[in-house]
Design brief:
The complex is a heterodimer of chains A (256) and B (280).
Chain A: E1 8-17, E2 21-31, E3 36-40, H1 47-54, E4 62-67, E5 70-71, E6 82-85, H2 97-108, H3 113-124, H4 139-150, E7 157-161, H5 169-184, E8 188-192, H6 196-202, E9 205-210, E10 213-219, H7 220-224, H8 229-238, H9 242-255
Parallel strand pairs in A: 3-8, 3-9, 6-7, 7-8
Antiparallel strand pairs in A: 1-2, 1-4, 4-5, 9-10
Helix pairs in contact in A: 2-3, 3-4
Chain B: H1 2-9, H2 13-36, E1 42-43, E2 49-51, H3 59-68, H4 72-91, H5 94-98, H6 104-138, E3 143-147, E4 157-161, H7 163-180, H8 182-194, H9 198-214, H10 224-227, H11 251-275
Antiparallel strand pairs in B: 1-2, 2-3, 3-4
Helix pairs in contact in B: 1-6, 2-4, 2-6, 3-6, 4-6, 4-8, 4-9, 6-7, 8-9, 8-11
Classes of the chains: A alpha/beta (256), B mainly alpha (280).
Chain lengths: 256, 280
């Protein structure tokens, strides 16, 4: 398989929001089949906007974005091969988890809808709560339903934006296992996180963004070098001009 | 996709509440008229039309439609139109609906059809519920009306409509009121594509109704020039159908105006939605 059919090819991607905010700035990134890529960086680095551009939700100001060799635009056919969880789960509050998944499935035109629905319900692992209205769900239950929706129809590419936010360790472990299982089946996964230990644990590759730019990318083992990924990250993010560095350090402390 | 949209919307508490409120309004109206109607001619709406409520069940839908067309029905319509896209954005499900191989135009169209269907249903519900309640309360009798515009101190024009004739006029009147909601619907729908706060879109639709009310020559003679260009002011002209002979002056102007407003608001909504960055 050549570059042209790689799950993700991003070239010179720039997104301007408002007059002088460059949410994404000349980003180049190629993700190959079967990789699990961690997208790291402080809040406002442009991770989430990048994922939304990949989903056809946000139009790039300039640059080229392709999924499996197909140009991305709103409603592009190739989006049928992509599952996503971005900016947290979003469901119809008065319908049950099961009904929400069923409606989502009807939008995706699946070849074996019943089997897909049952599999998704199993992944959600909500037990009897699957038939309760979504609005009664706890934070963790919502995220699990969101992940189940992202996995509907067995996507070839999974885009997850902070999928473990606010979950307890047991759920994080479950989600990690689900991601590993999906990747083992040949799917490609990109997930953003500001928890570097998480990226280190799950990902084969990492891409680190800051101020809309890609500042490092490659194999996790290479990026890490002798120390931890966190050390490498701080070295990268801290190593700019003094003024920038001061700002980034204050941001990092906000990150926690 | 329309069926998916319908499945999301019809069991919404807000949808059911809106319909329930409209239906109970007609019931309350019937009950009030039954206790105080008192065998007297009463003025209906802003034009000089007088009927005796408790002489015929058919008078109730006429009164109900006249008393809901200027605020209650525009509010209901603004709720359905304003909630449609913005409601989904507020739930956070809009981004998931649009991150699929689905054309935004088709998606918006399904929203439009369902919200429009609910709005028409709301307008129809008022005379239907009122007709049912009125007929049970006051029986099925011919409708007697006084045409105040042709009435002088010595001579009053009393017209009587047989049940069937009154129903036909009521049906046409209802269709006219429904058509008269189109501009407010389209405006709230446009706002719904612009904001992710459904309340703002609903409030905008209601706001347009209020602007229309305020810039009305009946209250502000100085704005007479605007009177017939406002989106909601001439919605009451259908009441002339209960005069004999009836006059249709101004109706076609009003209906064309609705079409112009709807075309303008909806095409901006479509144009914008096709280009919009879905950031929430």
């Amino acid at each position: 398989m050549g570059d042209s059919s790689a799950p993700i090819v991003i070239e010179g991607l720039t997104k301007r929001l408002g007059r002088d905010v460059l949410a994404v700035n000349s980003l180049d990134l190629v993700v190959e089949r079967g990789q699990i890529v961690g997208l790291a960086g402080p809040n406002g680095a442009g991770k989430s906007v990048t994922l939304k551009i990949l989903l056809g939700l946000v139009r790039p100001t300039s640059g080229r974005v392709e999924l499996f060799g197909e140009r991305v635009h709103p409603g592009a056919k190739v989006l049928g091969r992509v599952g996503a969880l971005v900016d947290g789960p979003g469901f119809v509050p008065h319908l049950s988890g099961r009904e929400n998944l069923r409606l989502a499935l009807r939008m995706t035109r699946s070849s074996e809808p019943m089997a897909d629905l049952e599999r998704a319900i199993e992944i959600a692992g909500l037990g009897d709560a699957i038939d309760r209205p979504f609005k009664t769900y706890s934070h963790g239950m919502r995220y699990r339903l969101g992940l189940a929706q992202a996995l509907l129809g067995t996507p070839d590419l999974l885009l997850l934006d902070e999928p473990t936010t606010g979950l307890d360790p047991a759920h994080i472990r479950e989600i990690r296992d689900v991601i590993a299982a999906i990747a083992a089946n040949g799917a490609t996964v990109v997930f953003s996180s500001h928890l570097l230990s998480e990226v280190e644990h799950i990902c084969t590759h990492a891409a680190i963004m800051r101020h809309g730019r890609l500042i490092a990318s490659g194999l996790v083992s290479e990026l890490r070098g002798e120390g931890s990924l966190e050390d490498a990250y701080l070295r990268l993010v801290g190593g700019e001009t003094p003024a920038d560095g001061a700002r980034s350090r204050s941001r990092m402390s906000v990150e926690g | 996709m329309i069926r998916i949209e319908l499945a999301k919307q019809w069991r919404r508490p807000r949808t059911l509440l809106t319909f329930a409120a409209l239906a109970s309004f007609t019931l309350a109206l019937t009950a009030a008229l039954a206790s105080s109607g008192g065998n007297q001619f009463q003025r209906v709406g802003d034009i000089p039309l007088f009927i005796v409520p408790d002489h015929s069940g058919i008078s109730i839908p006429v009164i109900a439609l006249a008393s809901t067309m200027k605020f209650f029905l525009p509010l209901a319509v603004a709720v359905f139109a304003g909630e449609s896209v913005a409601g989904e954005a507020g739930w956070g499900s809009l981004r998931y609906a649009l991150a699929r191989p689905v054309s935004r135009t088709r998606y918006l169209f399904s929203k439009l059809v369902v919200a429009l269907g609910f709005s028409i249903a709301a307008v129809m519900l008022v005379p239907l519920a009122a007709l049912l309640a009125g007929t049970i309360a006051f029986g099925w009798h011919p409708l007697t009306a006084i045409d105040g515009s042709a009435t002088t101190a010595v001579h009053s024009t009393i017209v009587t409509f047989a049940g069937g004739a009154a129903l036909i006029r009521l049906g046409i009147g209802t269709a006219y009121v429904a058509a008269g909601m189109v501009s407010i619907f389209a405006f709230a729908f446009l706002l719904s594509t612009l904001t992710s706060r459904p309340f703002a879109a609903v409030a905008g639709g209601v706001g347009l109704t209020i602007v229309s009310r305020v810039l009305n020559a009946d209250y502000l003679p100085g704005v007479a020039v605007l009177n017939h260009w406002m989106p909601n002011n001439d919605v009451d002209l259908w009441q002339h159908f209960f005069q004999d002979p009836y006059q249709t002056t101004g109706m076609s102007h009003f209906l064309v105006l609705q079409l112009i407003y709807a075309a303008a608001f909806l095409s901006i909504a479509w144009w914008w939605f096709e280009r919009k960055d879905i950031l929430t």
